[in-house]
């Protein structure tokens, strides 16, 4: 009896796969989105409606994700991005956060199994976000998964964890500024900045002024070192200093004036040189920021799908979705099925010409 049930189940599964492929063949007559992003909303509500623990809702959400990934890759979508865990989610109850981290670590390890969907479809996995905020076991598992799938090229799965779009943009701007600062330092190559001399080797010339001359001017002694003998009493030292100053005063005055003049001239020359370099200084441009975004490894999404009927982006891919249609079915994430995906793709195809036209105008 059990064998017959298993056999019937396999036949139904095979029939379902055949019908799905036939439907995808029809849908593929139109343009297929290259990249679909999902905000997986509704796991907790799904559990609450069924009087289940919150953890069971998240587990049901994982199963729904595996089904949706299979549908997307069979349809020909190359990039899939999922919003798995926001930086703001760290504010939830500690026990729920820990449950999510444990579940995430467990499912990352499942993705690396030989029979997993990752190996079936040749998927490369990226974990997107501020990974330093994750606990060590999860971070190590994520890095291991990225390394293990680095040679896969048929499809891409981007899992956003410890992510918000604001954090991504701030990170990109900081990296762009650091890059430009290094370029400016390499371009300028000067040792004088705002009148402060730094990073100078002994005996090095600074705009025509010897390093030792600068120290002579600063210390008031001919040998560039303090001329005080601390082994003598204060009164004797004062007399010695006064006597020495008297004997060398006229020499020091002339020398000091000369050094001061040379330093001033050097600073003026440095300012003039800076003005000449102003037009050469590289500025931070749009392309620089985009290059340093976490999501730079993938094209912008063609469709954004948020479940549970919500239309908020919740700080997700704000930079990348300026021309991306939002589809928000009423179904909670664990309830999302094949027909929701097909309907989203059909809507994309209906508006494809208009969206492409808008993108070209940007």
From TrEMBL:
<protein>
    <recommendedName>
        <fullName>Alkyl transferase</fullName>
        <ecNumber>2.5.1.-</ecNumber>
    </recommendedName>
</protein>
<dbReference type="InterPro" id="IPR036424">
    <property type="entry name" value="UPP_synth-like_sf"/>
</dbReference>
<dbReference type="GO" id="GO:0005783">
    <property type="term" value="C:endoplasmic reticulum"/>
</dbReference>
<keyword id="KW-0808">Transferase</keyword>
<comment type="similarity">
    <text>Belongs to the UPP synthase family.</text>
</comment>
<dbReference type="InterPro" id="IPR018520">
    <property type="entry name" value="UPP_synth-like_CS"/>
</dbReference>
<dbReference type="InterPro" id="IPR001441">
    <property type="entry name" value="UPP_synth-like"/>
</dbReference>
<dbReference type="Pfam" id="PF01255">
    <property type="entry name" value="Prenyltransf"/>
</dbReference>
<dbReference type="GO" id="GO:0016094">
    <property type="term" value="P:polyprenol biosynthetic process"/>
</dbReference>
<dbReference type="GO" id="GO:0045547">
    <property type="term" value="F:ditrans,polycis-polyprenyl diphosphate synthase [(2E,6E)-farnesyl diphosphate specific] activity"/>
</dbReference>
């Amino acid at each position: 009896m059990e064998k017959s049930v298993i056999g019937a189940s396999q036949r139904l599964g095979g029939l379902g796969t055949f019908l799905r492929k036939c439907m995808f063949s029809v849908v593929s007559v139109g343009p297929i989105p290259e990249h679909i992003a999902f905000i997986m909303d509704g796991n907790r509500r799904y559990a609450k409606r069924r009087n289940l623990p919150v953890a069971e809702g998240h587990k049901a959400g994982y199963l729904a994700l595996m089904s949706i990934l299979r549908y997307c890759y069979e349809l020909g979508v190359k990039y899939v991005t999922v919003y798995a865990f926001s930086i703001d989610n760290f504010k939830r109850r500690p026990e729920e956060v820990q449950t999510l981290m444990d579940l995430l670590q467990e499912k990352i390890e499942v993705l690396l199994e030989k029979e997993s969907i990752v190996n079936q479809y040749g998927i490369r996995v990226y974990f997107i976000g501020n990974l330093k905020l994750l606990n060590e076991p999860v971070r190590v598992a994520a890095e291991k998964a990225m390394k293990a799938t680095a040679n896969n090229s048929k499809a891409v799965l981007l899992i956003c964890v410890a992510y918000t779009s604001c954090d991504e943009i701030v990170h990109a701007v900081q990296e762009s500024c650091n890059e430009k600062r290094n370029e400016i330092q390499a371009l300028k190559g000067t040792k004088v900045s705002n009148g402060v001399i730094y990073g100078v080797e002994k005996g090095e010339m600074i705009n025509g002024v010897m390093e030792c001359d600068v120290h002579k001017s600063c210390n008031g002694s001919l040998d560039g070192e303090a001329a005080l003998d601390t082994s003598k009493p204060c009164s004797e030292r004062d007399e010695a200093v006064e006597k020495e100053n008297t004997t060398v005063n006229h020499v020091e005055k002339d020398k000091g004036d000369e050094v001061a003049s040379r330093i001033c001239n050097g600073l003026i020359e440095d300012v003039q040189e800076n003005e000449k370099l102003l037009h050469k200084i590289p500025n931070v441009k749009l392309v620089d920021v985009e290059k340093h975004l976490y999501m730079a490894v993938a094209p912008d999404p063609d469709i954004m799908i948020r479940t549970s009927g919500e239309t908020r982006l919740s700080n997700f891919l704000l930079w990348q979705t300026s021309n991306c249609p939002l589809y928000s079915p009423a179904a909670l994430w664990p309830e999302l099925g094949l027909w929701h995906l097909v309907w989203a793709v059909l809507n994309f195809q209906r508006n494809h010409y208009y969206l492409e036209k808008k993108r070209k105008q940007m």
